[in-house]
Amino acid sequence: MSKANAVQVGGTHYKSKAIQPWDYIASNDLGYLEGNIIKYVSRWQDKGGLSDLDKAKHYLEKLIEVETDKAICRESDRLIGFMDEMAKGKSKKKQKGE
Questions:
Q1: Residues 68, 39, 17, 15: what is their CA dihedral angle, to the nearest 10 degrees?
Q2: What is residue 92's predicted lDDT score, i.e. its pLDDT?
Q3: What is the mean pLDDT of each run of 10 residues along the chain (98 residues)?
Q4: Burial class (CB within 10 angstroms; exposed 0-12, middle 13-18, buried 19+) of 39
């Protein structure tokens, strides 16, 4: 057991877990939003009750919002690239006199 895992500041709500949430989060290279979802879902029965589930839901909603925005940007970039390629094709046709 790591030194940090041997001590829990602010309660015992993670002590009963087979895997500490922060070990799971770090081992799986999860980001801030995902990590907080894991944290709150892991502890809700032992610490914050439904409030922790509401917090997990809030982080999940933000994660969905962020990932949706990223997907929209990727699709927009893809469409811009496609339009640029179409414009280049038209320009080449004009140069050839087609």
A1: 170
A2: 67
A3: 79 83 96 98 96 98 97 92 86 66
A4: buried
Domain count, the chain: 1
pLDDT, position 49: 97
Our measurement of the distance from residue 29's CA atom to the centroid of its chain's CA atoms, rounded to an integer in Å, reads: 11
- The parent domain of residue 52 ranges over 17-96
Closest to 19 (Cα-Cα) out of 39, 3, 45, 47: 39
Task: Give the model's pLDDT for residue 32.
Answer: 98
Within a 10 A sphere around the Cβ of 36, how many other Cβ atoms? 20
CA dist., res. 34 & res. 14, Å (int) = 17
Number of H helices, E strands in the chain: 4, 0
Q: With respect to residue 51, please indicate whether it lies within any of the assigned structural domains.
A: yes
Does residue 4 sit within a domain? no
